[in-house]
Fold these 2 entries.
Entry 1:
Amino acid sequence: MRAYWALFRGQARSQTSYRLSFAIDVVSNVWATVLDVFTVFVLFGVTRTLGGLDLREALVVTGMSACAFATGDMLVGNIERITLYVRTGRFDAVLVRPLRALPQLVLMDLPLHKLSRAGFGATVYLVALGAADITWTPGRVLLAVLAPVGGIVFFGAVFVITASVAFWWTESGEFGNAFTYGGRDFTSYPVSVYSGWFRNAFAYGLGFAFVSYYPALALLGKRDPIGLPDWVGWVAPLVALPATAAAALIWRAGLRRYTSTGS
Amino acid sequence: MGAGFRRYSTYRQATVAGAFTNTVFGFLRCYVLLAVAAGAGTATVAGYDAARLATFVWFGQGLLAVVLLWGWTELADRIRTGDVVADLLRPVDPVTRYLATDLGRAGHALVTRLVPPVLTGPLFFPFYVPHRWTTVPLFVVSVLLATVLCFGCRYLVNATGYWLLDIRGPMILWALVSGVLGGLYFPLRFLPDALVVPLWLLTPLPSLFQTPLDVLVEIDPTPRQLWLVALQAGWVVLVLVLCRVVQRRAERRLVVQGG
């Protein structure tokens, strides 16, 4: 544990030592999420409803997604740099240390400047919860807390899974972005917006529907136009469990397959 | 130009991965915009019907890699490492040389990155086929202009490296602004006129995506299309001249790094 703490402290010190660079990163990172939320407002500038939800209701979905993605990205997102480590063979250095590989990788590049975005995501979520017409009950308060937590874990698992692809496919390039950033975009809007096999694959096959849409419906007390029963929203955060299990399995399988670059 | 084409044709796997990702984002954006059209309850939103919106999205996803909005740091990297000195020793102007390489790259992307999303879109969504014969050549010209213009903008962003060395700040700013104000996330005509008109006239950003895509889906009559392409050409000239000026000034103050 002390070794991990030392890794984290070293990172924090090195990142904050270039003050201007750090400040630029802190500010610019917020903007990515600001623009996502701005886009939702622009779209509602030309329409009244999107997938059966009005602006305030849709913002609960967007806020929950932004909060979950930004925090998950901050905590685990830099694992996507593993493609670089695997290609260059630098991953060897990680493996020879007497620490576990995954926590090391996460702490090696923990991007502290992404705190700003995670904070903004949480703010959007809280404001959306306040603005929406929600009849608060103890159960709903609990769900409002647990849903983003489940989402953070879920996105963390998605980052680990897409990064593990590098063990099998070294030149996978942008492939993972389709599911990490694609997943963020997917969960920013009501699932009822999508249709056909694409919706089935992303929403139910990969589980993205349970990150923000179903918990938001349960909070708002709305029925799902797609036809899933009302209790789905209440158990939706549990989607983090199978996702974590899958991530752990795929990560371990990938680690076993890693054979360095031989240089 | 040939060298640029050949160089990028060696990254086959990354090309496949990129085309796949563009296609997934095509589905995501297309469904959202079609839901906006459905929610609005009118036949068109801001002049776009469903077929035009879908075509806008899918061609936009294809053009993303052709104009190469993001991820070009070659010049900045060479400035930081000092390799840029080799560019300056050559008898060709660096702006011209980098532009030629970039056009070769764009030619490769035209085949490998524009075609997959553009063929995928019509399989699942309505598609707008241009009615006027003039539209197709205008679109081709507009895409070429957008590519050169985007190169110029990227060159300017990279050239800040002559002064800053670390261009992360300008790079992130460019990535954020160019996507949303270029028309990638939503057609800019969704914004109020008071914002769109100055944006189009006073910044090169809408000329990167919005102009070629609007030309393609014939949102305006022919004279207006011509006018938009002319505006695009004006921006190309201005930005390229600016590239030359910046390059000249940088050369005078450049202290080559490295040992």
Entry 2:
Amino acid sequence: MTPKHKRTWLLSALALVVGFALLAAACGSSKKSSSGTTSSTGTSGGTSQQKTFANFRVVYDTGTDYLDPGLSYTVEGWEAMWNVYLSLLGYKHVNGPDGATLVPALATDMPQVSSDGLTYKLTLRKSLKYSDGSAVKATDFQYAIERDYKVDSPGVGFFSNIVGADQFSKTKKGHISGITANDSTGAITIKLLKPQGDFQNILATIFAAPVPQGTPAKDQSTTPIPSTGPYLIQSYKPNRQFVLARNPQFKALPNVQAGNPDKITVSIVEDDAAALQQVINGQGDYDFHPIPVDRLANVQQKYGSQLKVYTPANTYYFFMNAREKPFDNVKVRQAINYAIDRNALVRLYGGLATPTENVLPPTYPQYKKLNLYPHDMAKAKALLKGTGATSVPITIWGSNRETSKKPVAYLQDVMTQLGFKAKLKIIDAAVYWTTIGNQKTKAQIGFADWFQDYPHPLDWFDVLLNGERITPTHNNNYSNFNDTAVNKKIDDLKKQPTLSDQVNTQWADVDRMVMQQAAWAPYVNRQFTDFFSSRIDTSCYVNHVLYQFDFSRICVK
Amino acid sequence: MLAFVIRRLIGAIAVLIGVSFIVFLIFIVVPGGDPATRLAGKNANDQLIANIKHNWGFDRPFYTQYGIMMKKAFTGKLVSYTNQTNVTTQIKEGLAATFSLSIGAAIIWMAFGILVGVISAVKAGRWSDRVITIVALIGISMPVFWLGILTRYFFAEKHTWFPDGEYVGLTQNPFQWFWHLLLPWLVLAVLFIGVYGRVLRGNMLDAINEDYVRTARAKGLDPRRVLIKHVLRNSLIPIVTLFGLDFAAVLGGGAILTETVFDLHGVGQYAAQSIGAFDLPPIMGVTLFGAFFIVLFSAIVDFIYAFLDPRIRPA
Amino acid sequence: MATEPATTEFTLDTAQLLAEEEHGRSIVGRSPWYLAWRRLRRNKVALTAFALFVLVVAVSAAAPLYADHVAHTTASANHPTENVKVGSKIVPVISQGGTYTDPKTHELRVKPVNIIGPTWWHAGGKFVLGADENGRDNAVRLLYGGRNSLIVGVGSAFLCTLFAVILALIAGYYGGVADWVITRFFDLIWAFPVILLAIALGAALSINGLHWNLRLFHVNLESGSLWIPTIVISYVLIPYIGRPLRGQILSLREKEFVEAAVAQGAGPLRIMFGEILPNIASSALVFFTLVVANNILLEAALSFLGAGIQDPNPSWGKLISEGQDRILTAPWLTITPGIAIVVTVVALNIFGDGLRDALDPRAKVRIEH
């Protein structure tokens, strides 16, 4: 049985934090507190009201890879750790698009960026302590980044624009020359090789969270690293359970409040149906798994607002390799876009999806709905006429997860109707991405999806569609899309340090340019579910745009 | 006797080496299975992949890699490629569930297997024998995971009489332990009950026609006594062999389907998950673990066999 | 046993005399195969089981005909947005679902899709057993699944028996080093956690197929090929057949007819295949039947774990695994392929037993699960 992971490779990084007068007000206004006590703690402004309760019991899936901030690269790991390891910057702990707003966390303010966009200056807050009581030092930030390199972290790619990082990657000796820190003043200076518009997002990733110097340069998941956030990791038994407890040293920060549960017990359950049953029975409080499709109607009707439906930033698409026949012809790529019926694909996902023709998901402020390719088989066939495309044998690639098998089986059927000779090639999900990301595979067309690493258009266009970033192996641009105009525009926009309205409009233009070239055939943005036991007050529910459900804000009725 | 033990030991080691080498080869040859690229994640760069290759030893010749892996396996230092968890620790964590499942199911299948075999042998040819034979045959012919899914559906989901999967520790709550394992025990046992019942029936029918039984009967002994003391006792000897091997296979990860269907977090499910993740070290660990039990139990079976039947003492 | 023989001395000669006395004709020599057939003919249960198996094979083989003329679709055609007429009602194959914002609570809600269930014959043969999540006809997939399961089951049993017979012949005939090596090989397979190795192998090969290009010997199997599960499964039961056959051959090797052949100057190949093989053929045939049954189960297990037959090919085991996700609303998706497996395997087991009794009533041929 293939495990049904909810959102598996979310990749990327971010960090935590949060502000919350808003939220606190929302929680505070909710009425009774039966098992919880309402108290006011924390030094931050005194406006925050806490609704503490003893134990929040989470039923998780098996996707947690590490509980080490330098190594974890999954949604599960980040959702668990964004209230444990704070970075210099973070995001607001709020619902909706405002969650993408960067705020200072362990830093006193947002960074001062030099006019050439190459130097970032930050200051660490004074008198911060780790959960073991030792002081947080400015050089711990530098240590954390260097430790990422020493543990071969999957996050090091985010830091390669820092001066001296590539050199350090080779030697792992001395220090990264582009990072300087002063423990007595708390000043941290970072020098970049090129301007990078999303660098503040990079600073907010969990990979950049300071850790005590002397933390061993190997996986520390089961011997947890002291934390800087409202919680600490008390214990971890891989594949079974982990426990988060309040960090006694934590004092509320302007954007990071103390959490409501005193303790968070996370048990790992593989099976969707079993997990749901546990929460219905009240053995657990929160079901991370997607509700099995055939239980959805019943659960929604019976438990009402204990079920939350949300759209994380994701896009599901078919890549079409522009280096391989017949997809080197833009007409063929457009034909596929016309031929697929996105409403049919929504049905394949059981209704938990919305059709899309954009690269960017609708949660982005840069999103402008495109409707370039309404379903039209006749038009698709007309475009193919004279291209000779249908005489090229086609192999459609997919992974063996349900979410991939269904759309590729549909695509095969559609392409057969268009007159192609198309066969399917389904391979194990564990090796799928590295296989299609290898140019030797010459994958023509197939399944792909993307969940953001951080809420910035660069995480989509630069990572997935910039022709200059095509690589022979571990390629992320599965379409090998390489359009000079698009590349130039991405490179220009990359220099913009902030996302102003004018910049956002330009990103929407990039989306349009890419889709006019039909680099992908995007088809849906998927929705997911969070489900809570009856004792949980879901008016406290916060679903963050990047880290998704926020354990720390939840409260009981 | 000592020579026998030594021979078995050498044979066992040879088999373990063979088994591990084959598993290793399967994964080395797999294209796209390069663990370095996968460890590097989606945001990889060449330097990172090169570093991982070097640090994990993927750049060494395959026989060196095999040697290192074996050394790690036998010193308990084998570590997963997907989350660097220690394989030995993970197998140990799964043992409670796997042992509970196997031992419980073994008791059930032995008891019912003998019961079914004896009844159908005694009633041979009558309708009750036919019914039992057919039922046993259906038991043998069912895919165990299908039976598991259906029992879960009928008894734990449609009607919520039983818990829907999961394992609860014996020390944690003995009643819940029993309650959670009841369905998996029965499901796993059904197949073996069918097999054992059929084998025992056949053996007993053969034995009934043997001279010594006829002699015993001719002496005027109580037929019931003859059945139990002479027929059943001798017919059980081959069952012991069968039991040893089956039990070893189930312990060593053979309950992979039952554990997966009921989400018991045992060694078998660990194997299934690791295979799904293409994670060689745990697969190697579980395979060696399973092969160890099979080799061990087949040796034990030979001893017991010799003990029960002096005609085949090891030479 | 009830009647006493008429003469005290009963030999083949006297039997012939007696027969002539009683029926007025003499005994004619019959081949052992003919005698077996006569015994089998009297075993109505075994014959019924065999007929049932033939029926399953025939129905599965007719899958393309059924798809074309009854269900009016193909094995891979998706119908997610179509409607069918069931009786007098128009029913969508998969109803339109989606997410929407609840006007009162302003919360995001889902309208789950509704997938068509069994129409039996009310839709003129379409969607007799309903549709799957892609809007494919389940009945069609069940038949194609049967075809694939049977091909893999029979094919792998054939390969298994073939290898086992050859290895047993070599081991039993030559003895010595060859015997030792082959017996150790059997031990090795025996000690392998069977399902584990098969899954590992199945999963590994499913990625890029099997490609060996030696000088004279080319093997090119694509990853979706049915050959891959067939080969993976075939090795598993080799020792179960090979061991008892080797034992039989060891004793046959000492028999006079073999010695006679040796004395006549027959080569090893002639002795192995001309003299010994015919004597173990009946055992091999019985084993073959039982291995087919066993391999159908094994294939189902592998497919269930994702290491057997690969998409888009259906198989019974895969259909069970796919149906599992919808078991609460559509239990028939899981139940029907399972029943197909049970019927086929029971039929093969009963027939195998009958065949064994007919060919050699004294043989102790048995296969474990």
